[in-house]
Amino acid sequence: MPRTAQTGIERPATRTTPSVEHVEASYAEALNEGLRQAMELSEAVLVLGQLVDYGPGVFGSTTGLVERFGPERVRDFPVSESAMTAAGIGAAIAGFRPVLVHHRLDFMLYSMDAIVNWMALWRFKSNGQSSLPIVIRAIVGRGWGQGPQHSKSLHAWFAHVPGIRVAMPATAFDAKGMLLEAIFGENPVIMVEHRSLFALKDRVPKAPYRVRFGRAAVRRAGRDLTIAAIGVMVPFALRAAGRLSALGVEAEVVDLRSVSPLDAETVIASVEKTRRLCVMDPAWQSFGVSAEIVARVVERANQVLRAAPVRISYPDSHTPMSSALELAYYPQEDSVVERLRSLAAEG
Amino acid sequence: MTGISHEGILKAGRYRGVSVGGGEAETARALLSFMVRLRACEEALAREYHPADEMRCPVHFCIGQEAVPAALSASLRDDDYLFCHHRSHGYYLAKNAPIEALFAELYGKASGANGGLAGSQDISYPSRNFYSGAILAGAAAISLGAGLGCKLKGGAQVAVAGFGESATDEGILWETVNYAAVAKLPVIFVCENNNYSVFSPQLKRQALDNISARVASFGVRSTALFGNDAMEVQRTLSREISRARAGEGPAFIEAYTYRWSGHYGPESDDLVGYRNAAEVEAWKQNCPISLLEEAMRASGTRAAEERKAFEREAASEIARCFELAKSSPFPKAPDWRTLNSSPASPMADKLLAEVELASFDAQQESQQAKGY
Predict the structure, then answer these.
(1) Where are the domains positioned within chain B?
(2) Is there a catalytic annotation at residue A81?
(3) Is A196 an interface residue toward B (CB < 8 Å)?
């Protein structure tokens, strides 16, 4: 079978004619297209965020929207993240479907009260009578010295709180589909988007479509070990799996897509087959999503594990600026491939 | 009114400014009726709170602060939004939400406004566009978005935020005022300045007693007034709400008032020593109900008889509410998952196509050739 130049991963030999009309689009273009279609489908959809109505359009994801839908619906917001989130809540109460955008997740932390004390428990405390269809897009940076205030991925915090859904799309296909699912669903959603993914291309259906939350995707099938990967770790896992394959180790890569709800079933089913588990989480290790996944697998399928689970994540440290230290901080392919190769040999 | 302050109000003694003008008799009667009912409701709840110990949630009573909710009840439409703080009962009734559901909520019963999930300080009544919450200024900030919604819909709806002066200690309140001004939103801010954040007086927390002046500097119409003059509060609110409905943007009203009871619960917390008996007594002499009753009498109404009649009505209504609340069943354990997250997504069902990843991938040249 032919192999792709980028990954060395085998391609299926046969081609079928796609029945779903699609275009090739980057992650950023897919987000942009999702927002555009959502705003066309419903006048209730609003976009709020700093600089969303300027040409650069939050790394291309909001470019062109203000020209098409006007400044009432595409609103540049003062540097007041708390009030912006509260405004999103109020707009949702009044029947709108706001999408809030943060260039970096770190800035939205001013709005933790609005998120945790109001948004998350709104449906609960109204006894199910009032729901908040709000989407908060939070972009996470990495590399080129982003440092400790431009690179935090706090998806585990948000996933810990009942009443918030947390999406972490890893492909352009998922970025558009999950964004639309979030906008037209009835729950608050925090979508954590990694900046490194914005240029990745994928085939994206033209029509507005949904990618449901809590349904993981098996991105690569394998028999020797399971890699449960989150967000930006999915392409990393696929690259590692490609190299492992060349070494005779077939890794199955599960893309969790959302961390709340979390599709543990797909991971467990995979582990029951491979009997080895590695979790890749683009965040600090302690008290994080990787621990939650390991716990759920162990609770249900401890007896099938032939080796202790492995967690690939970030050190319990803030992010350094220096490029030399970034190399030491972020997981590197060579050492991860080596680690997984020995995992496959254990037991 | 400029130069109003808590100190000045105490120095001035009994307030003599309430007036019922020609053509205002019906409004005065409505305000009196509302305040008498609210006072009776709070006093009855306070009497019953501890002896039976069946209302097992924090309750912040608003005895003495009835004028602002009364004025709101006389000024708001059914479709207007009202967001308020933890001292919620007056606001709840101002949006005409059912009093039986308020009592049942405090008792934690299934028939409560929120099925016993929220209690006094988090109560809401969504079908009446009424919401509350305990974290200071949070609800006021949410009114911003409701106001934005009102503006985008293009009707004459408004959103009102009711809060205490302590909420102005919070940064988010000022972000909120700023955005309401810059976006010209139909939001009315009503600040009940009762001087105390639990025990701590405003001038211990803020250098100046000039909240309304500070708000004005953001480009928001701002008025400070004596908040126990129900007629004046009502006139000011009605005027500002009308202007907001007409597209003139937000307004801020700072109503100086006073809570008679402790911060929380029915007992006095004066033993803490944060305020003295003379101050409390002086404010009781400026009771919003008595002040209005007196002004109505001066305008030729048989106000005392009216008040008695309202009190009798309220008493029988309240007795019925207690009976209902006490006899109602407790809620059953809910499905925690669907209570916290909606399992249904009707809009997505209607608008979005299902594209199963597996089938879509199978149609692609290669699943793995996705740019990785």
Answers:
(1) 6-342
(2) yes
(3) no
Task: Kindly state whether B121 is in contact with chain A, defined as any CB-CB distance less than 8 angstroms.
Answer: no
Residue A2 pLDDT class (50, 70, 90 cuts): very low
Same fold, A23-205 and A217-345: yes
Confidence of residue B358 (pLDDT cuts 50, 70, 90): low
Domain boundaries, given as residue ranges, for chain A? 23-205, 217-345
Interface of B with A in 46-75 (CB under 8 A): none
pTM of the model: 0.94
CB contacts < 8 A, A to B, total 234
Nearest to A86 by CA among B167, B153, B143, B189: B143
Q: Is A346 helix (H, G, I), strand (E, B) or coil?
A: coil
Given CB atoms, is A82 within the 8 Å cutoff of chain B?
yes
**Could you tell me which CATH class the domain B6-342 is placed in?**
alpha beta
pLDDT-derived band of residue A113, with 50, 70 and 90 as boundaries?
very high
Q: What is the pLDDT of residue A155?
A: 98
Question: What is the complex's ipTM, to 2 decimals?
Answer: 0.94
Q: Please give, rounded to a whole number of angstroms, the shortest distance from the CA of B148 to a CA of chain A.
A: 6
- Tell me the sheet residues that pair with A193: A139
CATH class for the domain made up of A217-345? alpha beta
Task: Report residue A8's pLDDT band, with 50, 70 and 90 as the boundaries.
Answer: very low
Please provide the CATH number assigned to the domain covering A23-205.
3.40.50.970
Q: Which residues of B touch A211 (CB under 8 A)?
A: 355, 357
Judging contacts by C-beta atoms under 8 Å, the chain B residues touching residue A126 are 114, 118, 124, 126
With an 8 Å Cβ cutoff, are B360 and A20 in contact? yes
Question: How confident is the model at residue A16, as a pLDDT?
Answer: 41
Is some CB atom of chain A closer than 8 A to the CB atom of B210?
no
Q: Is A150 a catalytic residue?
A: yes
